[in-house]
Amino acid sequence: KGSTKTYADFIQKLEAIANTVIGEITEIEPGFSTIDLAPGYVSVKGEDFEGKIYLVEIPIKNGVDKTYKKGDKVKVINKNKWEVNNINGNWESAPEFLSKLADDSKNTSQNSAESHTQVKNSVIGEITEAWPGYVSVKGEDSEGTIQSVEILFENGFNKTYKKGDKVKIINKDKWDAYFNGKWYSAPAEFMSKLT
After folding, report:
1. 8 A C-beta contact, residue 149 and residue 1
2. Residue 115: what pLDDT?
3. Does the global pTM surpass 0.70?
4. CATH class of residue range 19-102
5. Architecture per CATH, 113-193
Protein backbone atom coordinates (compact mmCIF):
# COMPACT_ATOMS: atom_id res chain seq x y z
CA LYS A 1 0.00 0.00 0.00
CA GLY A 2 0.94 3.68 -0.11
CA SER A 3 2.21 5.51 2.94
CA THR A 4 0.50 5.32 6.34
CA LYS A 5 -0.97 8.66 7.42
CA THR A 6 -2.73 10.13 10.43
CA TYR A 7 -6.20 11.66 10.53
CA ALA A 8 -4.49 15.06 10.97
CA ASP A 9 -2.74 14.50 7.60
CA PHE A 10 -6.13 13.93 5.97
CA ILE A 11 -7.62 17.06 7.57
CA GLN A 12 -4.58 19.03 6.38
CA LYS A 13 -5.25 17.85 2.80
CA LEU A 14 -8.90 18.92 3.08
CA GLU A 15 -7.85 22.35 4.40
CA ALA A 16 -5.47 22.72 1.44
CA ILE A 17 -8.35 21.95 -0.95
CA ALA A 18 -10.53 24.54 0.82
CA ASN A 19 -7.75 27.13 0.32
CA THR A 20 -7.38 26.48 -3.42
CA VAL A 21 -8.83 28.24 -6.44
CA ILE A 22 -8.95 26.47 -9.82
CA GLY A 23 -9.31 28.59 -12.94
CA GLU A 24 -7.63 29.93 -16.02
CA ILE A 25 -5.28 32.72 -16.93
CA THR A 26 -7.27 35.62 -18.35
CA GLU A 27 -4.46 38.13 -18.86
CA ILE A 28 -0.69 38.42 -18.79
CA GLU A 29 0.84 41.87 -18.32
CA PRO A 30 4.61 41.86 -18.90
CA GLY A 31 5.48 44.97 -16.84
CA PHE A 32 8.98 46.38 -17.02
CA SER A 33 11.85 44.04 -16.19
CA THR A 34 14.18 46.92 -15.35
CA ILE A 35 11.84 48.62 -12.88
CA ASP A 36 11.14 46.77 -9.63
CA LEU A 37 8.19 49.06 -8.91
CA ALA A 38 6.38 47.99 -12.10
CA PRO A 39 6.46 44.19 -12.19
CA GLY A 40 4.23 42.33 -14.58
CA TYR A 41 1.42 40.09 -13.44
CA VAL A 42 -0.71 37.12 -14.39
CA SER A 43 -4.49 37.45 -13.88
CA VAL A 44 -6.48 34.35 -12.97
CA LYS A 45 -10.24 33.95 -12.83
CA GLY A 46 -11.28 30.87 -10.93
CA GLU A 47 -13.48 29.37 -8.27
CA ASP A 48 -13.04 27.69 -4.93
CA PHE A 49 -14.67 24.43 -3.82
CA GLU A 50 -17.82 26.32 -2.76
CA GLY A 51 -18.20 27.84 -6.23
CA LYS A 52 -17.19 31.36 -5.17
CA ILE A 53 -15.50 33.26 -8.03
CA TYR A 54 -12.12 34.92 -7.44
CA LEU A 55 -10.05 37.32 -9.54
CA VAL A 56 -6.43 36.85 -8.53
CA GLU A 57 -3.32 38.72 -9.66
CA ILE A 58 0.09 37.13 -9.32
CA PRO A 59 3.12 39.43 -9.77
CA ILE A 60 5.85 38.40 -12.20
CA LYS A 61 9.34 39.66 -11.54
CA ASN A 62 11.90 40.13 -14.30
CA GLY A 63 9.41 40.67 -17.10
CA VAL A 64 7.32 38.09 -18.90
CA ASP A 65 7.10 34.58 -17.49
CA LYS A 66 7.19 32.21 -20.48
CA THR A 67 5.78 29.38 -18.35
CA TYR A 68 2.21 30.62 -18.65
CA LYS A 69 -0.05 31.78 -21.47
CA LYS A 70 -3.58 33.14 -21.66
CA GLY A 71 -6.12 30.32 -21.33
CA ASP A 72 -3.88 27.99 -19.29
CA LYS A 73 -5.72 26.00 -16.62
CA VAL A 74 -4.10 26.77 -13.27
CA LYS A 75 -4.34 26.23 -9.54
CA VAL A 76 -3.67 29.00 -7.00
CA ILE A 77 -3.13 27.67 -3.48
CA ASN A 78 -2.98 29.16 0.03
CA LYS A 79 -6.05 31.39 -0.40
CA ASN A 80 -5.83 32.16 3.32
CA LYS A 81 -2.47 33.94 2.69
CA TRP A 82 -3.60 36.20 -0.16
CA GLU A 83 -4.02 39.95 0.23
CA VAL A 84 -6.54 42.35 -1.29
CA ASN A 85 -5.09 44.73 -3.89
CA ASN A 86 -6.00 48.24 -2.67
CA ILE A 87 -6.11 49.67 -6.20
CA ASN A 88 -8.63 47.37 -7.89
CA GLY A 89 -10.02 45.18 -5.09
CA ASN A 90 -8.83 41.93 -6.69
CA TRP A 91 -6.93 39.36 -4.69
CA GLU A 92 -3.14 39.20 -4.92
CA SER A 93 -1.18 36.00 -4.46
CA ALA A 94 2.51 35.13 -4.30
CA PRO A 95 4.09 33.64 -7.48
CA GLU A 96 5.00 30.40 -5.70
CA PHE A 97 1.28 29.74 -5.06
CA LEU A 98 0.53 29.45 -8.81
CA SER A 99 0.92 26.20 -10.77
CA LYS A 100 -0.24 24.94 -14.14
CA LEU A 101 -2.65 21.99 -14.25
CA ALA A 102 -1.96 19.08 -16.58
CA ASP A 103 -3.93 19.06 -19.83
CA ASP A 104 -6.03 15.90 -19.50
CA SER A 105 -6.83 15.90 -23.22
CA LYS A 106 -3.15 15.25 -24.02
CA ASN A 107 -2.81 12.35 -21.58
CA THR A 108 -4.19 8.91 -22.28
CA SER A 109 -6.44 7.69 -19.51
CA GLN A 110 -4.98 5.34 -16.96
CA ASN A 111 -8.24 3.41 -17.26
CA SER A 112 -7.91 2.78 -21.02
CA ALA A 113 -5.96 -0.50 -20.95
CA GLU A 114 -7.64 -3.19 -18.84
CA SER A 115 -5.23 -5.85 -17.57
CA HIS A 116 -5.12 -8.51 -14.89
CA THR A 117 -2.82 -6.30 -12.81
CA GLN A 118 -5.23 -3.36 -13.01
CA VAL A 119 -8.18 -5.51 -11.96
CA LYS A 120 -6.21 -6.80 -8.97
CA ASN A 121 -5.06 -3.27 -8.13
CA SER A 122 -8.52 -1.66 -8.17
CA VAL A 123 -11.78 -1.39 -6.26
CA ILE A 124 -15.32 -1.24 -7.64
CA GLY A 125 -17.78 0.53 -5.37
CA GLU A 126 -20.42 3.16 -4.73
CA ILE A 127 -20.15 6.76 -3.60
CA THR A 128 -21.64 7.06 -0.11
CA GLU A 129 -21.00 10.81 0.37
CA ALA A 130 -20.27 13.56 -2.16
CA TRP A 131 -18.76 16.96 -1.32
CA PRO A 132 -16.95 19.58 -3.44
CA GLY A 133 -13.52 18.64 -2.01
CA TYR A 134 -13.89 14.87 -1.72
CA VAL A 135 -16.19 11.88 -2.07
CA SER A 136 -16.41 8.76 0.10
CA VAL A 137 -16.51 5.39 -1.62
CA LYS A 138 -17.23 1.96 -0.17
CA GLY A 139 -16.26 -0.86 -2.49
CA GLU A 140 -14.81 -4.30 -2.95
CA ASP A 141 -11.45 -5.34 -4.35
CA SER A 142 -10.74 -8.42 -6.51
CA GLU A 143 -10.25 -10.54 -3.38
CA GLY A 144 -13.64 -9.58 -1.91
CA THR A 145 -12.23 -7.26 0.76
CA ILE A 146 -14.41 -4.23 1.54
CA GLN A 147 -12.47 -0.95 1.23
CA SER A 148 -13.41 2.57 2.40
CA VAL A 149 -11.72 5.24 0.28
CA GLU A 150 -11.84 9.04 0.43
CA ILE A 151 -11.20 10.48 -3.05
CA LEU A 152 -9.59 13.93 -2.84
CA PHE A 153 -10.20 16.56 -5.53
CA GLU A 154 -6.92 18.51 -5.28
CA ASN A 155 -6.73 19.72 -8.92
CA GLY A 156 -10.35 20.60 -9.52
CA PHE A 157 -13.55 20.31 -7.59
CA ASN A 158 -16.19 17.61 -7.66
CA LYS A 159 -18.93 18.61 -10.08
CA THR A 160 -19.37 15.18 -11.66
CA TYR A 161 -19.87 12.60 -8.95
CA LYS A 162 -22.90 12.22 -6.68
CA LYS A 163 -24.05 9.88 -3.93
CA GLY A 164 -25.00 6.49 -5.36
CA ASP A 165 -22.70 6.64 -8.42
CA LYS A 166 -20.89 3.39 -9.24
CA VAL A 167 -17.15 3.95 -9.60
CA LYS A 168 -13.84 2.21 -10.11
CA ILE A 169 -10.72 3.32 -8.24
CA ILE A 170 -7.34 2.18 -9.56
CA ASN A 171 -3.74 2.16 -8.26
CA LYS A 172 -4.66 0.67 -4.88
CA ASP A 173 -0.96 0.22 -4.13
CA LYS A 174 -0.50 4.03 -4.27
CA TRP A 175 -3.29 4.98 -1.85
CA ASP A 176 -2.51 6.56 1.53
CA ALA A 177 -3.56 4.34 4.46
CA TYR A 178 -5.16 5.67 7.65
CA PHE A 179 -5.71 3.91 10.97
CA ASN A 180 -3.60 0.88 9.96
CA GLY A 181 -5.52 0.32 6.73
CA LYS A 182 -9.06 0.78 8.07
CA TRP A 183 -9.64 3.44 5.37
CA TYR A 184 -7.68 5.06 2.57
CA SER A 185 -7.42 8.22 0.50
CA ALA A 186 -6.54 8.57 -3.17
CA PRO A 187 -6.47 11.41 -5.71
CA ALA A 188 -9.46 11.99 -8.00
CA GLU A 189 -7.36 11.01 -11.03
CA PHE A 190 -7.56 7.39 -9.81
CA MET A 191 -11.38 7.26 -10.01
CA SER A 192 -13.72 6.84 -12.97
CA LYS A 193 -17.48 6.51 -13.21
CA LEU A 194 -18.91 3.16 -14.33
CA THR A 195 -21.86 3.08 -16.70
Report:
1. no
2. 47
3. no
4. mainly beta
5. Beta Barrel (2.40)
